[in-house]
Amino acid sequence: VDERGVFTEEAGPFAGLFVLEKGNTAVIERLQSNGRLLATEQYEHKYPYDWRTKKPIIFRATRQWFVNLEQIQDQSVTAINGISTVPETGRSRLLGTVGTRVEWCISRQRCWGLPLPVFYNRTTGEPLLNRETVKHIQRLVSVHGSDCWWKMSVEELLPPSYRGQAEMFEKGLDTLDVWFDSGVSWRAVLGERGIQTADLYLEGSDQHRGWFQSSLLTSVAVNGTAPYRMLFTHGFVLDESGRKMSKSLGNVIDPQTIVTGEPSKQGRKTAPIPAYGADVLRLWVAQSDPSKDVSIGPEILKITSDSLRKIRNTARFLLGNLNDFHVVEDVVAYHHLLETDKYFLHLLHQTATEITTDYDAYAFHRVCQTLAQFVYGHASSFYFEVCKDRLYANPKNSVSRRSCQTILYYMLDMLTKVIAPIAPHTSEDIHTNNIWATAVSSFHSGWFYPQAEWNNPELTQMFGVLKQLGSAVNSNVEQLRKDKTIKMALETAVTVYVQPPDVWHYFDKLQRSGELSDYLVVSECEVSAQPLDDQAGVVNLQCKMGERMVTLQMKVEVSRKLKCPRCWKHTRTADEIMCRRCTDVVNGFQTMASLHSS
After folding, report:
1. What is the C-alpha separation between 454 and 353, in angstroms, rounded?
2. In this structure, what are the phi and psi dihedrals at residue 548, rounded to the nearest 5 degrees?
3. Per-residue DSSP letters for 118-161?
4. 526 bridge partner residues
5. Mind listing the pLDDT tens digit for each residue in 156-181?
6. 525/115 Cα distance (integer angstroms)
7. What is the per-residue pLDDT across 28-59, written as a single tens digit (0 to 9) for each?
8. What sign does the dihedral 167-168-174-177 (CA atoms) show?
9. C or N terminus of the chain, fewer CB within 10 Å?
10. At a CB cut-off of 8 Å and minimum separation 6, what does 120 contact?
């Protein structure tokens, strides 16, 4: 069989027939006519097919060019062990392919590609390939491009010392393995810039047998080292049903369509993809675990868009509540912050530290997970809820309100900077609307590094007890709501007794600052100096705080006071229009207004 897939003269009567068409049929007919064929039938079995033409592959023995890898095998293994891989399984996969490979066939029989610059003796078939011939071809390619091999005559391609023998030679038609082409890209990209080693190579998980490996082998052969310091390997993109994307299935989603949207077409069965913008596409990529294949489709994009919208809404809340905050004048020093604010700063310190660590490890999906937990859980579900009363109802310049705004300012700074690598447009939008931002762009403002004093693990233990108390209070409030005794949690008041003494004093401090009732989302909370009587409605709890046990008693009751029309807390007496706090605040506004008018 020759290189065209046709039987040669050695095949006798079958010469000139294409193997997979008339050739196979003619062979079967000859066997039948000679009475040498027992049976013939069609059956399905595994056989390699060409992925482009969808036709079976013909195997034939041919002369090829090989690279002997045994001489650099040990060096290659050493080089692999000296790099970082993300995920770590990439190292074992690369070692598995390189550690056992002893040769590399670099010649191909294709009608396209970079030619192997080899001449062959027309009579003996011996190759002509030496430094002189290669240098000459190199000079021609630098002037005329690689197509000169196909366009120029043998006499033009041979160096001057061989031109007199041009009729003795013919040029080879083999092309170079494309993995060799891409495998020496380090020489063109890095070498031209005077760089020997790239910081990062990024590709799909199939490249351990492809580009990652060919780059390593060529670099080790030439330089004795790997061409990269780190390999980052990712999975493949599937549709929402888990099927591989292909044009034939019609399930390919163009990234540009995600960014700019899909036009409406009459008669289509599904709704067109809206214009999500680049940030949604980038967030989807960042959220994906690179060690696995990832799915994408209209529903997944909608969920991703909702995730980004929550981040934007969080930024909008922060910006809105910092409108009257002056960074130089109003920032509250750490030792003057309220305890709840210190605790949230501790959570912010943990989050920022984890995110920086994950960015350094290229673990972008963990960055997204940590940020989502912080924004949706710690911030929106916890901190924003417990601080709204202070923000909206306390005096404008009170320490309690400025303390909260100080935390919001730090959070806004952190959020703007940590989302910049993933959602740059969102980051820039936040930065543009931040009246206290001094840099021209969020990308010129540096990274966010939390202050060391924010890290306070002891607060985690104390607020762990508060969290268990909060769960018990919520259960009781919910039961009162189900019984239709109350409509909302602010209609209740809570009495708490806690031991040991140091925990009691801490709870008492939270009560006096108003933080305890805000944390429990009730109107009032009293910390009792004496144990509560064993009566109906008293709940007894045992909470673990580090190595110690904390005893808690708690009772939820319907507040005996009336609802304040300004803050909605049930802290007003019958002879008051508003609660005492709100009355003082409003009177302060009126005093300021009269001063301005005079």
Report:
1. 11
2. -110, 160
3. -EEETTT--EE--HHHHHHHHHHHHHH-TTHHHHS-HHHHS-GG
4. 495
5. 999 999 999 999 999 999 999 999 99
6. 84
7. 999 999 999 999 998 888 888 887 788 888 88
8. negative
9. C
10. 126, 127, 128, 169, 170, 171, 172
